[in-house]
Design goal:
This protein is mainly alpha-helical. The protein is built from four helices and no strands.
């Protein structure tokens, strides 16, 4: 059971970078606006509210299929994190800074 959870998590984790987030937002917005206009015009000319909702629903489903999964194309600019700093080195440099601040206050 644990291996199944690990397998599902690795496939559905959704790692995308900031550029990929912007791309998916623009893509989803474009698809939804386009299908809104198309569905309105088609429904208006045919005088069918049902056709309007069918076309708009198809646009929503298309947007979900193209945007919701974390495709590798959405992670082409990964973030480069800084290297890990040792906690002991941080504690030493932090105490030195405090001592420096205290000596400046004494003047």
């Amino acid at each position: 059971m644990d291996s199944l959870c690990t397998y599902l998590q690795s496939h559905f984790e959704g790692k995308i970078d900031f550029v990929g987030q912007e791309q998916t937002e623009k893509l989803a917005r474009s698809i939804l606006w386009a299908f809104t206009g198309i569905s309105f015009l088609a429904g208006f000319f045919v005088q069918s509210l049902r056709l309007t909702f069918i076309i708009f629903t198809f646009g929503i489903v298309l947007a979900l299929v193209l945007v919701l999964p974390a495709y590798p194309v959405y992670n082409t600019h990964p973030i480069k994190w800084l290297p890990r700093i040792d906690s002991q080195a941080t504690a030493k440099s932090g105490s030195e800074k405090v001592a420096t601040v205290e000596t400046k206050k004494d003047r």
